[in-house]
């Protein structure tokens, strides 16, 4: 037993009908948002196991959701090719961003919640302006060769992973595009908490840790199954471990440095679609195709 | 009556009754005869009153009755508002008559239109009957409202047509439609089924209860319904079970085997159970029955269609399996039963309730196989071989020296080749034909027969190689020819995937094959021999290998893998260099090949060359070093991820939103794609060639005289530093300039219209001009230069053109033009412009490229500087225009120059300048034409946009100007050349020349233009 890992199930959040596709902590980790194939977004208090609110408006499954640091706005995207910009408290859609030619896989706010960056199946990353009334994208990045699965933002960079096997970093400050060719379809990318490293989940059932400054491959994590579904991965709040779900319902923890599987246990009956780690505490939420969101604590 | 009258031709004057003829009518009558004599298009339609009712669309349209109104005195007045306070607005029932005019009414012939809600075949009585029926029922039914419901509340539907038909056929209400015979049959079958169920219930113990219950339920149901049927004797009102299967309408797979139906229902119930247990409350039957395997829990919108995306990708394989099973079962219901009762089946041999027949009726009759005659051979052999198949086995004939006679040798060679390709038959034929011909004696053993035999053999060897190889291969790879096998036979190189295993075919063999294949079509490049003996890069085996690969790629058709095999480690430049190397080497090889085939000397030479090339291309570091670095690179690249870096330009707003300074701030926007540009350049090449002669011709004519140069002393131009004094007449209004600078839309409209507005804008323009001076001084200078070298409309010309001119000293040579204005602000700019200028070649008209912009400038500056000292504005603008148009016309090639006619040849020395100038003009024209009216090409739009701002301004000024000139010119020219086509031709000419101009690379002087070209 490894200390500090959230291995105890502290609660199950039930409510979604059908698969839950993503679950995300909010900025301070007090709430979480889940979205799924039932076209709804749900806001939960995972610590008390309370369902707070349901956001309905999507016409198809919701694939990703992100919340602003001040918890006032939501952004979500999904199979209906639109990006919904929500008001958290009223549950109304403030704006819809249309423009993606196909399903939108991932969406994120920037630091100031002024820009929404979305990545879609149409091989593009688009940036949308939340401040102006314009519903046209600010910029379309279409250098990808294949569906863009996941997007991450830092203060000055847009990082996106694509099925074409590349992780592309668009540095706004310098005005350059860095292409790290992983040679394997990238499923999900996530940043370490110090943003120096990038964890990329590839479809060859391998997680790869990259040094962002040099593009060097630091470590590979194997053992889980990730071959056909979009599944999340992340680092723990201390950056000591790497965690990811598996297609067989398992959750894996690897040691960051020596890449050994520290812990694995069966968490869900079916594919674990998403994992999200509490920004400060040792707490994790996982979602699965079995329709549940589970909260894990130390 | 009137109408009748009009059909007649009247002679004489009809006697009129005073009371019914108005004067108009009289006139109409009088005109009638006259009208008819007119041609059709001059005849006018008039009404009976003699008024003209049809006007042109723009002169009033159709004016019947109340002119251009709805046909009432009031016209189309909206319904007046009536306050509902005092008097309630009555609901106006609109009838169709309000929408019909008199003619329509007439056509209706007094028949009233009515709508009917009923389509009653049998008249009104049916409805009446239905109503009564309903009343009767109403009485029977308990209802909240006592007594019969009033008629107007309960409106029963009339009987359907089907019912009526049935009634006609003798059916009466309240009777069953079912055949009576069917009843008994059904009863019997039901009995049988009951018995069967009793049997089968023994078989499947755990299911007994369920079966029992379901069966009993079902039976009860049928019983009840049957009873109902019997008691009332009528057909069931509504079939309660919706169609859920994929069978045809009315088809019941269990019709004669109702026992299977129960089975199926049971099975379905079980599946449903499982579904519920799995926690999909809505059940998948609903969705699954629709199609495929779709995500549970929710449907999709009514307007959407089930799509691939809706598939439940997460569904486990178990669910899939079950779904399949049910489907299978539906298709073949007996199968499951068979599975379930396999044991019993085997024990009893039959389904429960049946027993095996002791002697089956149906016996398969079996026949003995036919007897094969002993002498039968399964493979047909041709009595005589198609070709002398012994060619491989036959000992090759001895080499024979060719006959001395060269002709004979050639003949033999040719024939041998032919025979080798066409077969022995050809030989026989020619032998037959040329029996008498002594030349062909070699066929039948005469002179040169030995040589012929040898040659024939050789050819056959050569030609037969391919089929032989094919034979061999296909034989070896029987029975099936796989894709790989075929590829091998064809000598194709397997794609990258199997590069590792590609060694199965030696590259040499491949080449050989390939060359064999291509031999028939292309020159023989049997490089295999060479590449064997000649290894230009012997010192570096890797490189040699790559070279061989390169050769293969070069001479081999078909698919080829990317040229990367082991060059991965090399940088792009290295690779490029090596490629050049290889090209050179290959060329040498080819040359050597062509020259003397087996000349070892040439090979030596080639080797030398190749080596030289090697030295030449490979840096002095030498092979080893290269090798090492190569290896290092290999090592590095092995560790993916590979990192690449590109420039990426974030949009300014993005930077702003990210609170980051735009790294590209202030830099020009990215260049538009150059592709279209390249295309245009490519296309221009040939067309420009034929224009050339015409152009030169024009040049001569173009030489405009700078004869009368007038120096206007009144101008405050500081002329002392200026070699060339000039007087710029206040020719033009500054509107164009103003617009060019302060309006940013690049499309200009209504140039002439603008001119009319000029006056209002003039004040503003004046202010702008001051600011402008500085900006455009450079341009101005350049234009000056252009003007210097250029034609100036002379005083000779009469009319309005005469009045104002640009005046230049006659000595307007090339070189620096130093101009300083009283305006000090422009000083710096001027210097700049000067430098710019001096950079260019001194061939006069370099600066002309900018020319036009300056034109527009000039008046402004002039005004600024001259401040009203200038001569009054008169036709001046027109004048400049005409001057320019003059130029453009002259550049039009075929058209004559209005002005130069009498001055032709006067100033031959300026020809050169003028030519350049003409170039200028073309470009100007092109731009103008694109930006002004007819032919706006996106291309030019491009260039306008892409230029830097200052540039843009000037160019816009230019283009605006030009569009004006262009128009002007066209207008003028139309008077000269009445035919439209002519004008178009001219335009085409312009365009072509313009292309030519753009294409011309020799004219380095037009640096500005070069810049433009880049953006075009």
Please give a handful of descriptors for the protein shown.
heterodimer; A: mainly beta; Methylamine Dehydrogenase, Chain H; four-stranded antiparallel sheet; globular; B: about 1000 residues; mainly alpha; G_patch_dom (chain B); mRNA processing (chain B); DUF1604 (chain B); SWAP/Surp_sf (chain B)
What can you tell me about this protein's structure?
The complex is a heterodimer of chains A (298) and B (1016). With 298 residues, chain A is mainly β. Chain A is built from no helices and 28 strands. Chain A has strands at residues 8-14, 20-25, 32-36, 40-45, 50-56, 62-67, 73-78, 82-87, 93-98, 104-109, 115-120, 125-129, 137-141, 148-153, 157-162, 166-171, 176-181, 186-191, 197-202, 206-211, 217-222, 233-235, 241-245, 250-255, 261-266, 272-277, 283-288, 292-297. Chain A has a 4-stranded antiparallel β-sheet, with no helix packed on it. A 4-stranded antiparallel β-sheet of chain A has the order 2-3-4-5, with no helix packed on it. In chain A, strands 6-7-8-9 form a 4-stranded antiparallel β-sheet, with no helix packed on it. The radius of gyration of chain A is 17 Å and the shape is globular. With 1016 residues, chain B is mainly alpha-helical. Chain B has 34 helices and 1 strand. Chain B has helices spanning 2-6, 23-37, 102-108, 124-140, 161-168, 180-203, 208-232, 258-278, 284-288, 317-331, 334-340, 342-348, 406-422, 424-433, 449-476, 483-490, 507-519, 527-533, 541-555, 572-595, 600-617, 623-638, 652-657, 675-702, 735-742, 751-788, 826-839, 851-866, 876-891, 911-931, 938-946, 949-976, 980-999, 1007-1015; one strand at residues 642-647. The chains are: A mainly beta (298), B mainly alpha (1016). Chain A binds chain B through residues 17-19, 37-39, 59-61, 79, 103, 110-112, 114-115, 127, 129, 131, 138-139, 141, 143, 155-156, 167, 170-183, 208, 210, 214-217, 228-229, 270-271, 289, 291, and chain B through 279, 295-298, 300-301, 304, 309, 313-314, 316, 639-651, 653-655, 657-661, 663-664. Chain A: WD repeats lie at residues 13-54, 55-96, 97-138, 265-298. Chain A: It holds the Pfam family WD40.
């Amino acid at each position: 037993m490894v200390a500090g890992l959230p291995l105890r199930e502290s609660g199950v959040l039930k409510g979604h009908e059908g698969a839950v596709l993503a679950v995300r902590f909010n900025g301070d980790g007090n709430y979480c948002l889940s979205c799924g194939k039932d076209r709804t977004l749900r806001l939960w208090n995972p610590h008390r196991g309370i369902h707070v609110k349901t956001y309905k408006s999507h016409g198809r499954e919701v694939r990703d959701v992100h919340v602003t640091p001040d918890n006032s706005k939501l952004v979500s995207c999904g199979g209906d090719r639109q990006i919904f910009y929500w008001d958290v408290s009223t549950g109304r859609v403030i704006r819809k961003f249309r423009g993606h030619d196909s399903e939108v896989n991932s969406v994120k706010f920037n630091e100031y919640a002024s820009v929404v960056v979305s990545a879609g199946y149409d091989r593009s990353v688009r940036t949308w302006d939340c401040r102006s009334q314009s519903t046209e994208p600010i910029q379309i990045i279409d250098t990808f060769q294949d569906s863009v699965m996941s997007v991450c933002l830092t203060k000055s960079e847009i990082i996106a992973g694509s099925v074409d096997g590349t992780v592309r970093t668009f540095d706004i400050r310098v005005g350059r595009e860095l292409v790290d060719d992983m040679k394997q379809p990238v499923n999900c990318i996530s940043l370490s908490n110090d943003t120096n490293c990038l964890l990329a989940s590839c479809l060859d059932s391998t997680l790869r840790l990259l040094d962002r400054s040099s593009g060097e491959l630091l470590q590979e994590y194997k053992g889980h199954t990730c071959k056909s579904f979009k599944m999340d991965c992340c680092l723990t709040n201390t950056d000591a471990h790497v965690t990811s779900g598996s297609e067989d319902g398992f959750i894996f923890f690897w040691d960051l440095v020596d890449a050994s599987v520290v812990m694995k246990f069966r968490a869900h009956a079916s594919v674990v679609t998403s994992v999200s780690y509490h920004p400060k505490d040792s707490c994790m939420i996982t979602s699965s195709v079995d329709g549940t969101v589970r909260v894990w604590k130390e | 009556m009137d109408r009748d009258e009009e059909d007649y031709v009247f002679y004489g004057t009809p006697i009129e009754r005073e009371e019914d003829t108005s004067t108009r009518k009289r006139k109409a009558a009088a005109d009638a005869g006259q009208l008819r004599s007119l041609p059709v298009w001059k005849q006018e339609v008039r009404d009976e009153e003699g008024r003209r009712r049809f006007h042109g669309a723009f002169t009033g349209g159709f004016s019947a009755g109340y002119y251009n109104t709805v046909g009432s005195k009031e016209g189309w007045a909206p319904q007046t508002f009536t306050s509902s306070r005092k008097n309630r607005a009555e609901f106006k029932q609109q009838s169709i008559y309000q929408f019909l005019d008199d003619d329509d009414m007439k056509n209706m012939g007094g028949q009233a239109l009515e709508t009917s809600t009923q389509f009653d075949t049998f008249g009104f009585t049916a409805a009446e009957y239905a109503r009564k029926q309903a009343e009767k029922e109403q009485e029977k039914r308990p209802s909240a409202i006592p007594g019969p419901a009033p008629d107007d509340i309960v409106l029963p539907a009339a009987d359907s047509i089907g019912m009526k038909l049935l009634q006609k056929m003798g059916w009466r209400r309240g009777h069953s439609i079912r055949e009576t015979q069917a009843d008994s049959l059904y009863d019997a079958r039901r009995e049988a089924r009951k018995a069967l169920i009793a049997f089968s219930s023994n078989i499947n113990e755990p299911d007994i209860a369920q079966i029992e219950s379901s069966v009993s339920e079902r039976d009860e149901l049928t019983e009840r319904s049957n009873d109902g049927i019997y008691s009332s004797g009528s057909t069931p009102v509504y079939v309660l079970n919706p169609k859920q299967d994929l069978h045809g309408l009315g088809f019941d797979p269990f019709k004669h085997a109702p026992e299977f139906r129960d089975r199926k229902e049971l099975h379905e119930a079980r599946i449903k159970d499982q579904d519920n247990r799995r926690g999909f409350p809505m059940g998948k039957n609903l969705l699954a029955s629709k199609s495929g395997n779709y995500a549970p829990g929710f449907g999709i919108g009514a307007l959407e269609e089930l799509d691939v995306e809706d598939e439940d990708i997460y569904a486990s394989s178990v669910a899939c399996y079950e779904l399949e099973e049910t489907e299978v079962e539906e298709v073949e219901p007996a199968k499951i039963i068979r599975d379930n009762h396999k044991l019993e089946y085997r024990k009893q041999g039959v389904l429960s309730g049946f027993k095996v027949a002791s002697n089956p009726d149906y016996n398969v009759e079996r026949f003995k196989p036919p007897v094969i005659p002993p002498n039968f051979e399964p493979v047909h052999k041709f009595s005589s071989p198609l070709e002398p198949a012994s060619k491989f086995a036959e000992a090759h004939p001895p080499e024979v020296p060719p006959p001395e006679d060269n002709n004979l040798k050639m003949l033999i060679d040719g024939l041998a080749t032919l025979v080798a390709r066409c077969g022995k038959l050809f030989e026989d034929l020619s032998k037959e034909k040329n029996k008498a011909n002594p030349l062909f004696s070699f066929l039948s053993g005469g002179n040169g027969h030995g040589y012929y035999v040898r040659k024939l053999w050789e050819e056959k060897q050569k030609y037969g190689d391919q089929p032989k190889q094919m034979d061999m291969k296909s034989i070896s790879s029987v029975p099936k020819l796989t894709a790989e096998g075929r590829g091998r036979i064809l000598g194709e190189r397997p794609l990258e995937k199997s590069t590792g295993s590609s060694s199965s075919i030696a590259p040499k063999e491949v080449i050989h094959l390939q060359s064999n294949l291509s031999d028939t079509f292309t020159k023989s490049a049997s490089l295999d021999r060479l590449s064997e003996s000649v290894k230009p890069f012997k010192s570096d085996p890797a490189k040699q290998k790559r070279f061989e690969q390169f050769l293969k790629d070069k001479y081999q058709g078909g698919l080829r893998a990317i040229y990367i095999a082991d060059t991965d480690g090399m940088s792009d430049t290295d690779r490029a260099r090596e490629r050049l190397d290889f090209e050179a080497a290959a060329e040498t090889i080819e040359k050597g090949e062509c020259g003397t085939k087996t000349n070892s000397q040439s090979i030596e030479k080639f080797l030398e060359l190749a080596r030289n090339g090697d030295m030449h291309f490979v840096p002095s570091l030498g092979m080893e070093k290269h090798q090492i670095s190569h290896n290092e690179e290999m090592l590095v690249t092995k560790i993916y991820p590979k990192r690449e870096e590109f420039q990426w330009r974030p949009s300014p707003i993005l930077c702003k939103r990210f609170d980051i300074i735009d790294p590209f701030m202030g830099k020009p926007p990215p260049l538009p794609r150059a592709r279209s540009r390249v295309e245009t350049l490519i296309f221009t090449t040939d067309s420009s060639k034929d224009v050339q002669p015409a152009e030169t011709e024009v040049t001569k004519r173009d030489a405009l005289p700078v004869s009368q140069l007038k120096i206007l002393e009144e101008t405050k131009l500081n002329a002392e530093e200026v070699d060339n004094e000039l007087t710029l007449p206040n020719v033009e209004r500054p509107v164009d300039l103003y617009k060019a600078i302060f309006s940013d839309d690049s499309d200009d409209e209504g140039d002439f219209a603008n001119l009319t507005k000029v006056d209002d804008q003039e004040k503003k323009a004046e202010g702008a001009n001051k600011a402008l001076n500085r900006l455009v001084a450079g341009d101005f200078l350049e234009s000056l230069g252009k003007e210097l070298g250029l034609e100036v409309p002379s005083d000779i010309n009469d009319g309005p053109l005469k009045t104002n001119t640009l005046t230049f000293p006659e000595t307007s040579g090339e070189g620096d033009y130093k101009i300083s204005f009283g305006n000090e602000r422009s000083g710096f700019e001027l210097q700049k412009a000067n430098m710019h200028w001096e950079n260019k070649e001194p061939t006069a008209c370099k600066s002309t490229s900018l020319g036009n912009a300056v034109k527009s400038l000039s008046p402004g500056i002039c005004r600024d500087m001259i401040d009203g000292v200038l001569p009054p504005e008169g036709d001046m603008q027109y004048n400049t225009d005409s001057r320019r148009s003059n130029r453009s016309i002259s550049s039009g090639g075929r058209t004559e120059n209005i002005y130069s006619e009498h001055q032709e040849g006067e100033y031959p020395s300026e020809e050169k300048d003028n030519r350049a100038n003409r170039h200028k003009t073309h470009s100007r024209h092109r731009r103008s034409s694109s930006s002004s009216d007819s032919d706006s090409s996106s291309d030019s739009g491009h260039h306008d946009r892409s230029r830097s701002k200052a540039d843009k301004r000037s160019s816009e000024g230019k283009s605006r100007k030009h569009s004006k000139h262009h128009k002007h010119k066209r207008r003028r020219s139309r008077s000269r050349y009445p035919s439209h086509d002519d004008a178009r031709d001219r335009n085409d000419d312009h365009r072509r020349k313009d292309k030519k101009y753009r294409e011309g690379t020799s004219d380095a002087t037009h640096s500005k233009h070069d810049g433009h070209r880049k953006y075009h």
